Amino acid sequence: MISRVKVLFLFLSVCPTVFSQAISDEWHLIANSRENYYGVAMANGQIGIVTDDTPLKTKEIILNGVYDGSPENGISRIVRGIEFLNLRLKLDNQEIKSNNIDNWKQVIAMKDGTSTTSFSYKDLANINYTILANRAIPFSAMAIIEIMPLKDIEIVANNYMTVPDELKEAKSQFRVLKDNQYLMPVFGTVAKTLTGKYTVAASTTFLFDGESEALKQTKNEVGFTKKLMKGKKYRFAIAGGICTSKDVTDPLNESERQPIYALQEGIDKLLTRHKMAWAELWKTGDIQIEGDLDAQQRVRFALYNLYSFIRPETRQSIAPMGLSSQGYNGHIFWDTELWMYPTLLALQPDMAKSCLDYRSDRLQKAKQKAFIYGYKGAMYPWESDDTGEEATPTWALTGIYEQHITADVSIAFWNYYAYTQDKDWLKKEWAVLKETADFWVSRVLENPDGSYSILNVVGADEYAQHVDDNAFTNASAIESLKNTIKATTILKEPINPKWALIADKLLIHTKNGITQNYKGYEGQMIKQADVNLLAYPLNVITDKAQIERDLEYYAEKIDKKDGPAMASGVLSVLYARLGDREKAYSYFVKSYLPNSRPPFGVFSESANSNNPYFATGAGAMLQAVIYGFGGVELTDKGLKYNKGLLPQQWKSLKIIGLGLDNKTITIK
């Protein structure tokens, strides 16, 4: 067993040292050490509040869909918000700091979407500090503080706000609003993003159990003083919200309405609504593993993070790092459609649809990009922000040449129809499939023998640049074209005959019985799975012997030091579908364990990096469970439930909430 107190490091051949989180139970992750700390995003799809090991404060707040230019190169970057839940607490005129507390512990409650930090302060008190981004109220958050005095003490509690460097012209104010005899104290800060594109405003108030305390402003802090009696628990909360001019016309006043609303609701009602919203998500989409608590925690933590990073009906998508950081500038990549989307489609289709809405809203910008480079149809950007224009830094060739993203988007749209069989939706969104198919018609080159090639691209294997006939690029284009023909037939729209011609004659090269990564490939190290994606998720290669040969060959070519987590996830799916239980489980473990960081096991992109949370890797690991061990298969007629394959280490696998009828399957 893994100690509840100490961190155990496991040793695998794939990584010198990898972290294994402290065990508590299937819903809670517990940290007792602050060493090498990597926090967790308490997120609700709109705002992400990243935990810190320092008591009574947060690390940063990430605002979904809000972008402004970075000072380094002007490239758009997701915006950090005003940290509005921070607390300065004094006990008997002694301030609590990071280095003067004892018995620190932090618990992530995945079921409830909360983080609770507990500690003791000298011989004066034991303290709990719980933060949450309210799942039921998108722009709202709350910190709940519980103090158990060990003797009679006086506390001074002050809320302060931290404004990140990328915000400017920050102004704070405290005022007490009045409606008849009802007093509503509101503390707020408003600022501009770096270029002045957006206004950001955060506002808070204090909530109390029982009688309210009089609040006073001291410099840029607002708080109260209170005498507490030994052994009598005292609870209060900082509640409020953060709004921007991207979402509302008047962010300052709308942010002030968040604490005013909280005052009327109270701590328990706000907390109950938050927990109920999370309970509904788990009810409609969960994975239960019996017999392997560590795997259960990892899988559920991956689900928690994916669910945290998006909300249905917001027309937003998910960046590789979700709402946990500004990693990759918060841009949207193929990571969404190929790696995260399949899990959301299976368990939370309304969330998956939001990712598609994001792309549909930016179709005109994709058409503009095709026009800029002399092509027809729609050419989606490799990195996308709120504008839908290309947001890749200019030094990165991927922005121009990693063009499989256009097919990835199209395939995701078809897969949503396949899942739902919703013809009205398909008719509404058919233009995405048609315009992306038209792009490939204009992009391919006809060879003298009548075959077609796509020249000069960067494939999924980004180590290979300026290559011809990259396997994944060509195969995804083939799937995109074939899916467009299916959709067009269903809708009785005119079919471009070139769609079928190119889909049938677009080249995928082989050599010595191995599918070639690209034309002229000579066995070089690859960044990640490329050819293997043709078997899953594309289903372009279906011959079992060919799948096995490609697996054995390319599994040894993937960069073992710096390759991203996704490759192991897709290899696990394929080996599970081939019936190889041992290899499927081995690659499942490799898809997360070398990339786990203390103290909670947050994902890093590779075994050799420290940039969590990598939602892309979480998506790949979850696909290994659902589409590999679970035997789930997405066909043109909807989900199909095959036999599945249970790892020897597990007693059973239960997947809850599959399909339109919220089906539950159990693998034993």
Describe what this molecule looks like in 3D.
The longest helix is centred in the middle third of the chain and has 21 residues, at 423-443. A hairpin with a 2-residue loop joins strand 9 and strand 10 (94-95). This protein has a domain at 22-249 and 274-281: Beta-galactosidase, Chain A, domain 5 (Distorted Sandwich), CATH 2.70.98.40. 51% of the residues are buried. It contains 15 helices and 32 strands. Residues 1-20 have low confidence and may be disordered. The protein has a ten-stranded antiparallel β-sheet with strand order 3-4-11-12-13-14-21-18-17-16, with helices on both faces. Strands 10-9-15-20-19 form a five-stranded antiparallel β-sheet, with no helix packed on it. A four-stranded antiparallel β-sheet has the order 5-6-7-8, with no helix packed on it. Helix content is 31%, strand content 29%. It is of the alpha+beta class and 668 residues long.
What's the short story on this structure?
The chain is of the alpha+beta class and 668 residues long. It contains 15 helices and 32 strands.
Structural class category? alpha+beta
SS field, number of helical segments? 15
Number of strands: 32
Tell me the fraction of residues in β-strands, as a range: 25-35%
**Reported CATH architecture of one domain:** Distorted Sandwich
InterPro entries: 6-hairpin_glycosidase_sf (IPR008928), 6hp_glycosidase-like_sf (IPR012341), GH65_N (IPR037018), Glyco_hydro_65_M (IPR005195), Glyco_hydro_65_N (IPR005196)
Organism: Flavobacterium micromati
Keywords: Hydrolase, Signal
Pfam family, one: Glyco_hydro_65N
